[in-house]
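input
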Amino acid sequence: MLIHPIPPVFDKDSRVLILGSFPSVRSREEGFFYGHPQNRFWKVAAKVFGENTPLTVEDKKDFLIRNHIALWDVIGSCEIDGSADSSIRNVTVNDLSVILETADIQEIFLNGRKAYQLYQKYMYPDTLREGICLPSTSPANAAWSIEKLTDSWIKIRIR
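output
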């Protein structure tokens, strides 16, 4: 059983919550979200906001706070083979109340179908807040170019 090692990033001014499924092996090693260089999350988010891609963990945290984004994952602990979402089993979820009771979250977005399915199954019954499924920024979603992802992810720009 693996326990999620990365705390959520948010503050009282966060307006958008983006949830992934569970950190990849690379993200767990780096201690921060979307650490694999082939994952396009940071490139897409930067394009959406017209900024340079943040490179360091500190720059990534600053980027999120500056753009009113809260970031975490649905899963708090699970069994997983490597980084494969398809292998996830024995799920326990993170407690979103720590974010939802602090920030005025206007929209909840899910990074990919697996995160969306997990959110709908485990979290929606408690939050009663609809989640919006966005195409995954994972390199496994190779059919989606950076441009196509950016066009879909533009909706995270609410203020």
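quick obs: The two ends are 38 Å apart (CA to CA).
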